[in-house]
Amino acid sequence: MKRKIEKAAVLGAGVMGAQIAALLATRGIEVILLDVLAQEPTDEERSAGLTLPDAEVRNRIARAGLQSLGKMGPMVSFGSIPEDSISFGNFEDDLAKIADCDWIVEAIVEDLTVKRGLLKRVDQYRKPGAVASSNTSGLSLAAIAAHLSEDFRQHWLGTHFFNPVRFVKLVEVVPTQDTLPEVTQSMLDLFTINLGKGAIIARDTPNFIANRIGVFNALQTIKAMMRWGLTVEEVDELTGTIMGRPRTATFRTMDLVGVDTILPVARNVYENAPGDEMRDLFIIPGFIQKMIENRWLGDKTGQGFFKRVEGEGKRGQAWALDYKTMCYRPRQKPDLPVLEEAMKIEDIRERIRFLAYAEDRAGAFVWETLSALLIYSANRVPEIADRIVAIDNAMKWGYNWQLGPFETWDALGVQRAVARLKAEGREVPAIVRRLLDSGNDSFYRREG
User: Which residues of 238-260 are buried (b: 16+ CB within 10 A; e: fewer)?
Assistant: First the structure.
């Protein structure tokens, strides 16, 4: 049965909810955007003669959420949104309006109790057969809907968009054991055909796919940096474009998204994935904890792993954090001769292979981080996804990596990587052993 989504309700007008509403509106879907009730008029509203009973006051928070997108720059802004394609309301006055919606998207605060409370009310108004979903980035979908009606649970799943919604291709579709297969398929079709997204199916596990792998990789990178005594500048040189990753690499990315954002994601794995063999890695390093305590959170507080100080030029001078002393110093040009050779290699697979097997400090760092990533990703099948291509696409579409973990296995050479792991006394993942036992030596077959 082909499901038509003509009208949607987005619950929550924060950064993500407002962007989701804007995306749907630009794709021809009528949207009602709801948020909490404003408690009192602003001075500007009072000057205009408005009082609390006026809808313009009561619905201000939902309306302001959408308006704020235009102030966040071109990466977030959706430009011109069709007039009258989005209406506004609040959870107290307007929740009953969801009754004629084909899809209801919850995008409120990442708090299990708060989500349950709102969705219990949603269940009273939602029409039978309407899809309901959450944009949670890692909470259990089954736990959120555990006490709701059977029809709700059959039409309930996760639809995790990534920020900025306009440009990041990935959407993780997360069904539960109760979700009807046709509901999952209809949402996959909606995302890929109507919304132009790259949709993958993830299992209902902590942080799903991309953030589970991505945060592991970030924490492993930090651990290897400390082990090999590298600077934050050196790590960013070794984990950015040279490796087929975004130029913001590791620490510039953390400054952009907020250093503190890693904390709840890591805690979610540590507390809710007790069987994870790398669970202790998700304990945040002490110097990161200190940065959070100091409010050195990145761009939003003016300093994180990097900051600018007054000096020559309009933007001043860039300084970097020395995590050993917790003091800032002028940025240093990385002294990594292997990078000059690596930059001459155009093919990303050959370049990654060259770096991983380089016999110097940089090569040791790259091998340690990459091998840990590849082992961890391989051990997550089928825990977080049934198919390796879902994990690879999650990292390419969600984190903008050129190669996913299993494509990187192939780039390094599975047999060569396994031989080195064995020589180091490390356990080879079961999926890799089965691959080699079957007579194959790569996860993908490259044409030509």
Answer: bbbebbbbbebbbbbbbbebbbb
- Is the Cβ–Cβ distance between 391 and 209 less than 8 Å? yes
Residues 381/388, Cβ–Cβ less than 8 Å: yes
CATH 3.40.50.720 location in the chain: 7-201
Which residues are bridge partners to 346 per DSSP? Answer: none
Question: Which element (helix H / strand E) includes 373?
Answer: helix 361-379
Residues whose CB is less than 8 angstroms from the CB of residue 151 and which lie 6 or more positions away in sequence, other chains included:
128, 129
Cα-based angle 251, 257, 258 (whole degrees, multiple of 5): 80
Q: pLDDT band for position 47 (50/70/90)?
A: very high
Closest CA to 363 of 335, 336, 393: 336
Angle at 10 (CA atoms; ends 6, 14), nearest 5 degrees: 145
Farthest CA pair distance, the chain? 78
| Topology (CATH) of 210-277+335-437 | N-(1-d-carboxylethyl)-l-norvaline Dehydrogenase; domain 2 (1.10.1040)
Write down the pTM of the prediction.
0.95
Chain-centre distance for alpha carbon 375: 21
What is the spatial distance between Cα 217 and Cα 223, in angstroms, rounded to a whole number? Answer: 10
Per-residue pLDDT reduced to its tens digit, 154-176: 999 999 999 999 999 999 999 99
In the chain, the N- to C-terminal Cα span, in Å, equals 39
pLDDT band for position 314 (cuts 50, 70, 90): low
Tell me which CATH code domain 7-201 carries: 3.40.50.720
Cα–Cα distance for residue pair 226/362, rounded to 1 Å: 13
Burial class of residue 263 (count of CB atoms within 10 Å of its CB; 0-12, 13-18, 19+):
middle
d(CA 350, CA 269): 33
Q: What pLDDT is attached to residue 77?
A: 67
Question: Is there a contact between 158 and 172 (Cβ–Cβ < 8 Å)?
Answer: yes
| Nearby residues of 435 by Cβ (< 8 Å), 6 or more positions away | 414, 441, 442, 443
Closest by CA position to 172, among listed 388, 404, 394, 11: 394
Edge-to-edge order in the sheet of strand 103-106: 86-90, 30-35, 7-11, 103-106, 131-134, 156-161, 170-175, 198-201
Residues of the chain with CATH 1.10.1040.50: 210-277+335-437
